[in-house]
Design brief:
Helix content is 32%, strand content 15%. By secondary structure, it is of the alpha/beta class. It folds into two domains: 150 residues, Aspartate Aminotransferase, domain 1; 284 residues, Type I PLP-dependent aspartate aminotransferase-like (Major domain) (Aspartate Aminotransferase, domain 2). Helix 4 runs parallel beside helix 9 and helix 10 packs parallel to helix 12. It binds pyridoxal-5'-phosphate.
C-alpha cells in the first residue's frame, strides 16, 4: 500500500465498476451502455489492464499524453514537488517552477515570438482565457471560428466548437432515425463561422490547387473568410484556428492556408488566436505548429495537454508583445485558484525539459516520416481509404465509398450527431477491432480514424500498429464496392 492507494492486484475491480456506474456522472455513454474498462496503470506508451494486458496507445490517451501515458521523469518531479507544496496562489507569490516554465516557453519553445504567459487549468480554460484577452484588448465581442473546429466544451469555448456532436449536446442511444439533439440554450453565442480548408471535399465547391487561380493565389476559403471579416469588422475581435484540425478527423491543410489567414487577419485588424492545445509541444514536429511556416506568428496562442505530458492538468496562453504591453499598464482583476498550481508547474517544467533533453521533437519528425510511408502502403492495400493525411505525429485515415466520387460512408460525415446505433461507423468498427487487438486509436469522426501516438513512439510500435490497422480496415473494405 502506497499512502492510501491500494495496489491494482488488491483491488476488487467489479466492485469499483459498480460504484462508478452508480455514482459517476459519465460523459459519452448513456447509463445502460456504460461499461467502464479497468486500467491498472500506464507504462510508457501502454495502458495496462489489471490482468497485465498491454494496450499500445496510438492516440496519446486523449490526444494529450505526448511524452507517453507514463513518463518516469515527469512523475518523479511531481512527486518530489508534492513533498514541498500543498498549494500556493499564483497572484503575488512565486515558487521555484513557474519562473522556469515561463522562461522556457518564451525563450526556447516560441523563440521570443511572445512576451508573456498566463495559466489556466485545461484547454477549454485556455480558450476562455485567450478569447477573453482578445475581447478586452479589441473591445469587440465576436470571435470567428470554422466549421469542424473543436476548441473546448466550457460554455464560452464551446461557442467556437463547430463539430455538431461535440457542442455539448445530448442525444439518445436508441432513436427512430432522427438524432433529436438537445443543446444547452445559449451555446454558440458570440461566434461567426468561416469555411474550413478541407480540400478533399471542399465545402465551398472548389478544387485544390486549381482554386488558387480564382483569386490570384488567394485560396477561396480564405477569400470567403476575409469577406466575413470585412463585413463584420467592428464586431469580430479575433479569429481562432487550429493549424491542423485535431478532433474532427485529421487531414493536413494546404500550405498556403495559415500564412494567408495571418495576412487577412492583419489586414482587417483582427487578432489571430492559434489554438495549439493538441498541436503544441512537438505534435507536428515543431514546438508549435505555427512554426511550420516561415515568418508568421499568432497574436495569442492557447495551449494545454502535452505542456505537462498530461501527468497533471494545466493550460494557458502566450500573448504577443503588443498585448503584453497593453496589460502591463492595467490592473487586470481576475483570479483562478488552481492556475499555475505548483504541481502543474513541476509537471510542466519536467515535460518541457524531457521533450528537449530526449529530443522528442526530432523523434516526432523521424517517426512521422516512417508512419507516413507505412500509411501510404496501407492506402494502396485498402480500397476504402480515401486519404491518409497529416504531419509529424498527427494523422488521419479517411474512409470513403469510392475513390472517384470521394463519397463518405456515413453520409452526414463530420456533421453527424452520433445518435442511435453508431457501431457501424467505419471509425467505430476499426477502433473496436484495433482495441480487441491491443491498439488504441482515435475515432472522433464517423469516417476517419486518427493516429496521434506519443512522441516517444518507436519503429517497432509503428509496425505493430500498422499490422493491426491492416487487419481492422478489412472490415470497412467489405462495406464498399
Ligand atoms: C484544439 C483544442 N482546444 C481546446 C480543447 C479543450 O481542451 P480540454 O479538454 O483540456 O478542455 C481541446 C481538447 O481536445 C482541443 O483539441
Amino acid at each position: 500500500m502506497l499512502g492510501r492507494i491500494p495496489k491494482p492486484e488488491d483491488e476488487n475491480w467489479d466492485q469499483l465498476a459498480e460504484w462508478d456506474k452508480k455514482y459517476f456522472l459519465r460523459p459519452i455513454f448513456a447509463a445502460e451502455e456504460y461499461v467502464p474498462m479497468p486500467i491498472a496503470k500506464t507504462e510508457g506508451s501502454y495502458l495496462v489492464t489489471p490482468e497485465g494486458v498491454k494496450i499500445l496507445d496510438f492516440m496519446s490517451v486523449l490526444h494529450c499524453a505526448g511524452c507517453g501515458a507514463y513518463h518516469p521523469k515527469i512523475a518523479a518531479s511531481i512527486k518530489e514537488y508534492a513533498d514541498r507544496f500543498g498549494y500556493i496562489y499564483e497572484g503575488g507569490f512565486i515558487e521555484s517552477m513557474r519562473p522556469r516554465v515561463v522562461k522556457f516557453l518564451i525563450e526556447e519553445a516560441s523563440k521570443g515570438d511572445f512576451a508573456r504567459v498566463g495559466f489556466a487549468n485545461s484547454g477549454s480554460e485556455a480558450v476562455e482565457y485567450g478569447t477573453m484577452i482578445a475581447r478586452l484588448y479589441s473591445q469587440r465581442p465576436y470571435i470567428l471560428t470554422r466549421d469542424f473546429a473543436y476548441h473546448g466544451w466550457t460554455h464560452g469555448a464551446v461557442a467556437f466548437t463547430r463539430i455538431p456532436y461535440l457542442r455539448n449536446i445530448a442525444v439518445r442511444p436508441v432513436t427512430d432515425g432522427e438524432p433529436k439533439p438537445t443543446i444547452a440554450p445559449g451555446t454558440g453565442m458570440f461566434s461567426y463561422l468561416a469555411p474550413p480548408p478541407f480540400c478533399y471535399r471542399c465545402p465551398i465547391g472548389h478544387d485544390y490547387p486549381d482554386c488558387k487561380k480564382v483569386y490570384n493565389g488567394m485560396l477561396p476559403c480564405v477569400k470567403r473568410t476575409k469577406d466575413i471579416l470585412l463585413t463584420l469588422q467592428p464586431e469580430i475581435g479575433a479569429m481562432i484556428t487550429e493549424i491542423v484540425f485535431g478532433s474532427c478527423g485529421v487531414w493536413s491543410p494546404p500550405p498556403e492556408y495559415a500564412p494567408q489567414i495571418r495576412k487577412i487577419t492583419e489586414e482587417t485588424n483582427t487578432l489571430w488566436i492559434d489554438d495549439e492545445v493538441i498541436c503544441g509541444f512537438g505534435r507536428t514536429g515543431k514546438w508549435f505548429a505555427y512554426q511550420l511556416y516561415k515568418n508568421i506568428k499568432p497574436d495569442i496562442l492557447t495551449f494545454a495537454k502535452n505542456v505537462t505530458g498530461s501527468h497533471v492538468p494545466s493550460g494557458g496562453v502566450l500573448v504577443s508583445e503588443k498585448i503584453a504591453k497593453w496589460f502591463d499598464e492595467l490592473r487586470w482583476w481576475h483570479a483562478s485558484t488552481f492556475a499555475s498550481h505548483p504541481l502543474a508547474m513541476a509537471g510542466a517544467y519536467a515535460a518541457l525539459t524531457t521533450i528537449k533533453e530526449e529530443k522528442l521533437i526530432d523523434n516526432a519528425v523521424k517517426m512521422g516520416k516512417y508512419l507516413e510511408d507505412k500509411l501510404e502502403g496501407l492506402k494502396d492495400r485498402h480500397k476504402s481509404i480515401g486519404f491518409a493525411s497529416g504531419v509529424g505525429l498527427i494523422w488521419g485515415i479517411e474512409f470513403i465509398k469510392n475513390r472517384k466520387t470521394r463519397e463518405p460512408i456515413v453520409p452526414t460525415d463530420r456533421h453527424d450527431f452520433w445518435a442511435g446505433d453508431i457501431s457501424k461507423y467505419p471509425a467505430k468498427m476499426v477502433g473496436a477491432e484495433c482495441f480487441k487487438r491491443q491498439l488504441l486509436v482515435s475515432t472522433f469522426a464517423p469516417n476517419n480514424v486518427t493516429l496521434m501516438p506519443p512522441l516517444t513512439i518507436t519503429e517497432d510500435q509503428v509496425d505493430f500498429a500498422i499490422e493491426i490497422l491492416d487487419e481492422a480496415i478489412k472490415l470497412v473494405d467489405a462495406m464498399v464496392k
